[in-house]
Design a protein that fits this description.
kringle, mainly beta, about 800 residues, disordered N terminus, Protein Transport Mog1p, Chain A, Mucin_vWF_Thrombospondin_sf, about 35% strand, seven-stranded antiparallel β-sheet, single chain, 8 domains
């Protein structure tokens, strides 16, 4: 079947017409009637006729793109038409550019005219070429069938033979100097969304939007009359609607976004019917209502040539069939895309080009800004501003449709003041068009998915990528794990369960993280913890042994009198006081013991296990039994004399004695001596009628202890503590400080200033910080830094 239609293109002349459409996401109905889905995201030749010496030669090109994160489908972004040595661009939101300059509608020359027609912007040439674009995703090309076999492009030729058209549509990719050309276009993959989930296909066929297009349905449709003439083409558009439904459901898209896509499909069928002279009133307040701007309303059968500020009588001269769209209210006409009163129409310049009221535009040398404005009862183009010439190494060029000063090629800077030559650093070179998404250590494949326009600039040499503004060899990048952590080439790191050793290494032209070794889980009573920036097996708290094999739980006893071996959990002193944690400020020299408060005797400094208590720098002994069950040796001994009379027992006290451990060397074995343990002090007693002396083993009272002093360097004199030069490297919450010379795990801008300060607490920025602080040496920490608890001197 051929979709050649009879449609008047030029007044008093009718041609048999070849018709092709790119719509939706995108679907193509070719000149010879076949339907294809081609999801390329480059620029492609939609249709062209090129014959030497024929002034009617043309090329129509479309640029496709992904939108809103939907990668399964692409959309028509713009349409470029090259005809009569002129380049016309129909862009999104119905913006129109002629040879790069933004123009306003209607726009007329001796060879072609561009105007709004219903929901489309319509270009029509004197040779019969018609190109229309709805400013969103649908483009239509109509050409006289006399060009027939000489047509090429995705639309194919027009000879009623669908079998001789090119099937490899990627071959029509346009490689040009377009500001929208991407460095790499994605490979077009076959995608059949309805095959992903057959349920979606059934849903799409029965959805209230698509089903009105189904020519095989027995249900009455607003398009029933149109089906009689265009049944086969309507079937193709119905298939496109179902395809779109499946594609968006695969992407988990519903609601307004999906509804708009499907409504656009129905609108395409409505336009097809209108071209054949069949008006279809299919929209309702609930089914695809078409919103219109101020001073306009929806019409299913408005003139294809609406009244404009340039030609108010256009409808009376129009030879085209009625179309649907937004029609200006009575008393209003079109000024570009807005409906205005006649008194609010704009200006026409010496070349006959129209400018809406208030529009500003710049001269070709960028020296004069003109504006269309009301002068008395007339609309005139007046000089609004004069400007200085463009700066050194700058020139006046069209950019975004307007003349503006820009730096010359290979230059950068302020084009109004002056531009300087672009100099590329080491391992880089200048290129006229460079990707806006260069390959980097963080994303070596960035150019392949870049959707940003290219521009001149510096590109890294082959084998080099961007990193912190410089071009470095790929091998110097290292690797990045799933958490975004960067590793140098050759670096090894262990998984969070200590079972896998991975390494950053070169694999071909890429740096990859590969598995180097697998390990057994940590041993009994061991756990995988982050220490020194790496995960490693360690014995659980107060356990000892080989963490790869097994760790032994601590015994609640000491092997030797001084108890340096004790690693248990007793945390009370002989007087019942609770011990302080070892990594507090007052126990600074013992911070290495960790954030626990178990009794210890580090380095055998005292005579038995001990700990700090809650008051001042005081410390006390702990009562830890001997592992062999014997009486522990004495820390202090003394002789007590105690006698009783008249058969009554007597309680004897000894000044300075806090806790009595045992009694020995009694003079009179017949006497019974014993101990009464008190909350404050222990008492020795003797039974009635006995007496004598005996030796006791005891713990001294607290007042006889010597407190462990705080060194003068381990304190601060001021609140902010900028003068503190001590060696404390633990935060107030007990976390280890990161070395100031390190950039891992926390980025550190003080690494040069404090590179010799190890990981000690400091306050290098007193304006922002209230007291000494440090970065936390933990890549998983939610806080990058914490304050330290430094005492006043």
């Amino acid at each position: 079947m051929s979709t050649n239609l009879e449609f008047p293109l030029v007044q008093e002349t009718c041609f048999a017409v070849c018709w092709c459409q790119a719509s939706g996401d995108p679907h193509y109905i070719m000149f010879d009637g076949q339907r294809v889905n081609f999801m390329g995201t480059c620029k492609y030749t939609l249709s062209q006729y090129q014959k030497v010496g024929d002034t009617c030669s043309y090329a129509v090109e479309v640029k496709n793109e992904h939108r809103s994160g939907y990668t399964h489908v692409s959309y028509t972004r713009l349409v470029d038409i090259r005809v009569f040595d002129t380049t016309i661009r129909l862009h999104l939101q119905k913006r129109v550019y002629v040879n790069g300059k933004l123009v306003f509608l209607p726009y007329r020359t001796a060879q072609f005219e561009i105007a709004l027609s219903g929901t489309y912007v319509r270009l029509e040439t004197r040779c019969g070429l018609v190109v229309q674009f709805d400013g969103a995703s649908s483009a239509i090309v109509q050409v006289p069938n006399v060009y027939g076999n000489d047509l090429t492009g995705i639309c194919g030729n027009c000879n009623n033979n669908p079998n001789d058209d090119q099937k490899d549509y990627s071959r029509y990719e346009v490689v040009d100097d377009s500001d929208l050309q991407l460095q790499h276009c994605k490979k077009v993959e076959d995608f059949h969304p309805c095959a992903q989930n057959p349920t979606f296909k059934t849903e799409g066929e029965t959805t209230s939007v698509c089903r009105v297009m189904d020519p095989t349905s027995t249900t009455q449709s607003a398009f029933s009359e149109c089906f009689k003439s265009y049944r086969e083409t309507a079937g193709l558009l119905f298939s496109s609607c179902v395809y779109d439904y499946c594609a968006f459901r695969v992407d988990n898209t519903e609601g307004k976004t999906l509804e708009k896509v499907l409504c656009d499909d129905v609108s395409d069928l409505s336009y097809l019917c209108a071209m054949g002279g069949i008006t279809v009133k299919w929209r309702t307040s609930t089914l695809c209502p078409l919103p219109c701007g101020p001073n306009s309303h929806y019409s299913a059968d408005m003139s294809a040539c609406p009244a404009t500020c340039v030609d108010r009588e256009a409808p009376s001269k129009c030879t085209g069939n009625a179309v649907e769209g937004c029609e200006c209210d009575t008393g209003y006409v079109l000024s570009n895309q807005r409906c205005v009163r006649v008194a609010e129409c704009g200006c026409t310049d010496d070349d006959g080009q129209y400018y809406p009221l208030g529009t500003k535009f710049v001269s070709k040398d960028c020296s004069v800004v003109r504006q269309c404005t009301a002068v008395g009862n007339e609309m005139k183009i007046v000089v609004k501003e004069t400007r200085d010439p463009c700066g050194t190494n700058a020139e006046c060029k069209l950019q975004d449709g307007q003349y503006t000063c820009v730096c010359k090629a290979r230059h950068k800077g302020d084009p109004l003041k002056g531009c300087t030559e672009i100099t590329c650093g080491t391992n880089a070179h200048y290129v006229k068009k460079v990707t806006a998404c260069p390959a980097s250590c963080q994303d070596p494949t960035a150019p392949s998915s870049c959707q940003k326009p290219m521009a001149e600039g510096c590109a890294c040499d082959k084998g080099f990528v961007r990193n912190d503004g410089q071009c470095i060899r790929v091998q110097e990048c290292g690797c990045k794990d799933d958490d975004g952590t960067q590793y140098q080439d050759g670096a090894e790191f262990i998984s969070s369960d200590c079972s896998v050793v991975r390494q950053c290494t070169a694999v071909g032209n890429e740096m990859k993280i590969v598995v180097k070794e697998t390990r057994e889980p940590c041993g009994t009573n061991a756990e995988c913890k982050l220490e020194g920036g790496q995960y490693t097996c360690v014995c659980k708290a107060r356990h000892t042994g080989d963490p790869l094999k097994a760790c032994t739980a601590p015994r609640e006893c000491r092997k030797k009198l001084e108890g340096a071996d004790y690693q248990g959990e007793v945390s009370q002193t002989v007087t019942g006081k609770t011990c302080r944690t070892w990594n507090t400020m007052k126990a600074r020299r013992y911070a290495i013991l960790g954030a626990h408060n178990g009794c210890r005797n580090p380095n055998s400094e005292q005579k038995a296990p001990w700990c700090f208590v809650k008051t001042g720098n005081d410390w006390e002994y702990c009562d830890i039994p001997m592992c062999d069950g014997k009486k522990p040796g004495c820390i202090a001994t003394t002789t007590v004399s105690c006698s009783s009379q008249n058969g009554n027992s007597k309680r004897c006290k000894k000044e300075g004695v806090r806790r009595v451990t045992w009694i020995d060397q009694v003079d009179d074995p017949k006497c019974v001596f014993g101990l009464t343990y008190g909350r404050e002090k222990d008492e020795v007693w003797v039974n009635g009628g006995c007496g004598g002396t005996f030796k006791i083993c005891y713990m001294p009272e607290r007042n006889s202890y010597k407190p462990i002093p705080t060194p003068n360097t381990e304190c601060k004199k001021t609140r902010k503590g900028t003068e503190y030069k001590g060696t404390w490297g633990i935060t107030a919450s007990g976390r280890l400080c990161q070395s100031w010379s390190s950039q891992y795990p926390q980025a550190n801008k003080f690494y040069k200033k404090l590179s010799r300060q190890a990981n000690y607490c400091r306050n290098p920025n007193p304006v922002a910080r209230k007291r000494p602080w440090c970065f936390v040496d933990d890549p998983k920490s939610k806080t990058k830094w914490e304050y330290c608890d430094i005492l006043y001197c």
